[in-house]
Design goal:
By secondary structure, this protein is an all-alpha fold. 60% of the residues lie in helices and 0% in strands. The protein has one domain. The protein is elongated.
């Protein structure tokens, strides 16, 4: 049987979320090795730390527009569109 993107995707969707994430990371690394990345190793570690904190429910997610409004209000910044 010849593997197609749809077959592979369907098979991947039967995996649990953590395994799908690991598969996605492996596929991405095969396309864009970290050595060729614009990110440093420290940045990759920080990304991993933040993803883990998010996955474990340790952080509060805020919609971008709301976060920007909060920062502007805290620092007295005005913004007009």
């Amino acid at each position: 049987m010849k593997a197609t993107i749809q077959n592979l995707f369907s098979a991947a969707m039967t995996l649990d979320a953590d395994t799908r994430r690991d598969l996605a990371e492996r596929l991405w690394d095969a396309v864009q090795p970290k050595e060729d990345s614009v990110f440093s190793e420290a940045t990759w570690q920080e990304i991993g730390r933040r993803v883990t904190a998010s996955d474990e429910g340790q952080v509060e997610h805020v919609i971008g527009d709301i976060a920007l409004a909060q920062v502007r209000a805290e620092h007295g910044l005005a913004f007009s569109e």
